[in-house]
Amino acid sequence: MDVTDTRRTGKASTGSDDDESDVALMDNSVSISMVTDNTYGTIDEQEDAKKSAFFGAIQQRADGRYGAEGWGYEPEGVLLSKLNVGFFKSLWHLSQLALTSWREWMLFLTLPVTVAAYIWVGYYVMLAPGYIYTALINDDLDDFIYRCTVLLGWVSLISVIKVFRQFITSWISNEWRNSITTTIHELYMTDLRYYTIQINAAGVDNPDQRIVTDIKGVTTEFSKILGGSAGSGGLYEGFGNILWYSVQTAQRAGWYGLVMAYGWSALMAVFSVLLINVVAPWVFRQERFEALFRFLHVTVRTRAEDIAFLGTGGHERNSVKKTLDHCVDNTKKIITRQVYLNSVEFAFGYLTTLIMYVSLGIAVFSGLAWNFTPESERAQWIAQTSGSFISLLFGFTILIQMSTQTSDFVAFVMRVSELHKALLAEKEKRSNGHQSSAGGSRDEALLNTSSFSVSDAQELQTDKLQITSPAGDVLVTSLSFVLKQGDSLLVMGASGGGKTSLLRVLRGLWPASNGSFSRPPALTDGKGGVFFLPQRPYLAYELTLKQQMMYPNVNVECNDSDDVFIDVLGEVGLTGIVRRVGGLNVIADWQVMLSVGEQQRLCLARVLWHNPAIAILDESTASLDVEWEKSVYAALKRRGVGVLSVGHRESLIPLHNKVLRLKE
Ligand SMILES: Nc1ncnc2c1ncn2[C@@H]1O[C@H](COP(=O)(O)OP(=O)(O)OP(=O)(O)O)[C@@H](O)[C@H]1O
């Protein structure tokens, strides 16, 4: 048996091989089922576990992410990123996140109104040369001065409208970014989804990049696509021009002028839409490579000291180079494919002038134009008809150019909507779990599965708990114990045996594959409940020393005097740092300021300050010397905190009432 009651024996026991019963009742407070080789269930049962959604999602993710072409390659995502029905559905989906209030709708509607004003004033600017030519041909100075003055007025007005259009386009982009990011943040940063999305969501790589860069890409590009930018008109201008100048062209050049313009544009549009799908998937892929490239560099920066201790950074150099190669090779593919698109775009741009002259020629030489145009107004007719025609074709040009420029946009939209859908799926899954369980805070309730309940009693209880890793390996088959306030249980066992996994299940990060457990709520405001301390010290960004101790409840009202915090720091041997850093209320880069041991002590100070009913410590004293380790456990005992520790060190055994050894 591998359970030792140190209160009874006073020393550690390693257990004997001939006693491997499933359940070991040690005393009234703790009953423990041990994992032994013969409790692993049949092969069929294990296969069933592997078929769980949990496992399925992980497997899909692994297959997608580490494909034959290495990191960052995901064929399904690449194929998805096309200008097709799926894209428009995703775009619609994101628009609903962007337009959530009447204010956003008002802003959104300001844009077409502004563009309509722009087209209307632009029409008068377009007419002006015709009038000026007529005044010149008629040698009419007064008319010439009048026409020039009017033109000055229109030109001033159109400049103001254009500036406003730019302003409103950028403003809308920023507002949309805020709305979409806020909605996605809300989903991502709530109910531990920033964790579970990584375990469960198939194919959603680099959520950080999608949130930080891709959403901005969506909103910037979309506002430009609708409203235009400094260099090009937008969708509204394109359609506005087509509508207005179709009428004008038909009136001036007759129906065949229209047929020429529409026929020519339709031809180019078909080419462009076909060619856009040659580029878009590779842009999607590029985003993946860029994200990975940045991530590897961030890792080199944040783990610089570890890498420098371990070696020369050769592997990291190779990794970043390999990823750079992927970025560069993929960019070459994009550039090559872009040639086709550019050919269509440029050819269309230059040939437009030719098409215009041909159409005018047909109107003139067929006798239509001169039939109804007085001699004195022929110059005006030529100038205004060509202006109309060019404006009509410009409308089409805008639309066609836009389709060649949307490859980035398609990629951004697909990546952001993929993340949003994955987050919604996570939320849905948790809500379903919630329906079948009872009680607890919002945070805990959403973590609930049918196997978990929040108890009012300040104790942790597991009943025949089975734990399965995301890869489908059964780590613990049937574990039952009760841990009351003031009790202490040490979980030991081989590396990879499932110790931290047990804590993951108790926290609610992984589902239990069988059995059940109950515990007080975690992370309630301030004190009490269960406090989990992870294996690696975590010191949050931009917090003072005092707030680090209050973390995660940094915003709760705290009436404790500074002395309380200083006393707690004293209990973990950190009084010195208060003076060193300049007080309790100073923000510093704690990862750099403190040694790993000091970081671990500060995290332990957190547990002591919170004074929970139960503390769950994952190798939390590994960097402390034995004397300080003893001292910290004594401080927990003084407070009557129930302790569940995971650890390897023999020195921990006498500090606990019970020891549970997980077998391999
Ligand atoms: N996200 C994951 N996906 C798949 N398998 C995982 C995942 N996390 C952990 N595992 C596997 O689950 C097993 C148990 O891991 P766990 O972290 O519980 O080990 P441990 O007993 O705490 O080990 P150590 O003492 O080394 O910290 C290991 O084989 C590990 O590889």
Whole-number tally of structural domains? 2
Shape: elongated
The rounded Rg comes to 35 Å
**DSSP summary, beta strand count:** 12
Examine the coordinates and then state which fold CATH places here, giving the name of the CATH topology of the largest domain. Answer: ABC transporter transmembrane region fold
Name of the top-level CATH class of the largest domain: Mainly Alpha
Number of helices, where a helix is a run of at least 4 consecutive DSSP H or I residues: 24
> Which regions contain 5 or more consecutive residues with pLDDT less than 50?
1-80, 434-442
| Major sheet characteristics | 6 strands, mixed
Distance between the termini: 14 Å
Second-tier CATH architecture of the largest domain: Up-down Bundle
CATH H level, superfamily name of the largest domain:
ABC transporter type 1, transmembrane domain
Percentage of helical residues? Answer: 55-70%
Bound molecules: adenosine-5'-triphosphate
| Mean pLDDT value | 78
| Binned strand content | 5-15%
Structural class: alpha/beta
How would you describe the overall organization of this protein?
The chain has 664 residues and is α/β, with parallel strands linked by helices. It folds into two domains: 3-42 and 465-662, Rossmann fold (3-Layer(aba) Sandwich); 95-427, Up-down Bundle (ABC transporter transmembrane region fold), CATH 1.20.1560.10. The protein is built from 24 helices and twelve strands. The protein has helices at residues 6-9, 43-50, 53-65, 75-80, 85-98, 102-137, 141-188, 193-200, 207-227, 235-253, 255-302, 304-310, 314-365, 368-372, 378-405, 407-435, 442-447, 499-507, 545-550, 562-571, 575-581, 590-593, 596-610, 626-638, and strands at 3-5, 23-25, 31-33, 452-454, 459-468, 474-484, 488-493, 514-519, 530-533, 614-618, 642-646, 658-662. The strands form three sheets. Strands 1-12-7-11-10-9 form a six-stranded mixed beta sheet, sandwiched between helices. It has a four-stranded mixed beta sheet with strand order 4-8-5-6. A two-stranded antiparallel sheet has the order 2-3. Strand 5 (459-468) and strand 6 (474-484) form a beta hairpin. Helix 6 (102-137) runs antiparallel to helix 15 and helix 8 (193-200) packs across helix 16 (407-435). The radius of gyration is 35 Å and the shape is elongated. It starts with a strand and ends with a strand. It binds adenosine-5'-triphosphate. The site of adenosine-5'-triphosphate has 14 residues, from helix 18. Adenosine-5'-triphosphate is lined by residues 58, 199, 469-471, 475, 493, 495-501.
